[in-house]
Design a protein that fits this description.
The chain has helices spanning about 5-50, 55-85, 85-115, 120-125, 130-140, 145-150, 190-215, 220-225. It has about 230 residues and is an all-alpha fold. It folds into 2 domains: about 10-115 and about 185-225, no CATH class; about 130-180, no CATH class. The radius of gyration is 25 Å and the shape is elongated. The two termini are about 30 Å apart. The mean pLDDT is about 85.
């Protein structure tokens, strides 16, 4: 191979490395923003229902929140490893990131399948939207019970009664928030973060394999920052 061919090959390898690193930084930002949104949302739900012992789903919310916070720290570490090109550390990080992401997805799956309408009910109630569909389907009334309507509007919707009879004997006394084990779609918006992280994992593996192939040297973060050559 001539010197010119080697130079062309080197430039192609560098271009691919820069492209992968650029894509990874964008994906890191997307995953960080998605996890941050999830953290804020879960905190709001936990705080909102912390005074109601009957809301058992908040214990699952706490577990999901804990893992989401852990993922935030891991994403920051991942950015550092990508910028410094530490191949051995990056390999360990990829394995740990996969395990943490898998755990997060399983916890979300348990939460959304055991309490399939908790998030939907909370969101709709906060947005002052109707719960009639859930009340008809699950035989429930309001978020925590009929008092939710009585305190807010002073009257109960017909969907809180069997067959919309409006008879006291047909009233649903249980709230919709804690309804368990109903029919729920496997693919839900709660899994968007897991999808982003799966894409990030694929690009991390590609980046690691490319670093290993071209035997890229480690980079010092201080020199990278000083020279402003992030990519």
């Amino acid at each position: 191979m001539t010197d010119s061919e080697q130079e062309v090959q080197h430039q192609e390898s560098e271009s691919k490395l820069i492209a992968l690193r650029c894509a990874l930084l964008v994906l890191f930002f997307v995953c960080f923003a998605s996890n941050l949104y999830n953290c804020v949302y879960h905190v709001q739900v936990i705080v909102h229902y912390s005074e109601f012992p009957a809301c058992e789903f908040t214990s699952y919310e706490s577990l999901v929140l804990t893992v989401a916070i852990l993922m935030q720290f891991m994403l920051v570490i991942g950015v550092y490893l990508v910028l410094t090109q530490k191949i051995r550390d990056l390999r360990v990080f990829i394995m740990l990131f996969f395990l943490a992401g898998w755990l997060q997805m399983l916890l979300i799956l348990v939460l959304t399948q055991r309490y399939p309408i908790a998030h939907d009910v909370h969101f709709r109630w906060q947005e002052h939207r109707s719960l009639a569909h859930f009340e008809d389907w699950f035989g429930c009334c309001g978020v925590l019970g009929p008092d939710d309507y009585l305190l807010s509007t002073g009257q109960l919707p017909s969907s809180c009664f069997d067959n919309h009879s409006n008879l006291t004997k047909d009233l649903h006394y249980n709230g919709c928030l804690n309804k368990e084990n109903g029919n729920s779609a496997i693919l839900r918006y709660e899994f968007l973060t897991s999808l982003f992280q799966l894409i990030l994992l694929v690009f991390l593996i590609m980046f690691y394999l490319h670093l290993k192939k071209i035997k890229a040297p480690k980079r010092n973060l201080h020199s990278v920052w000083k020279s402003r050559i992030v990519l």
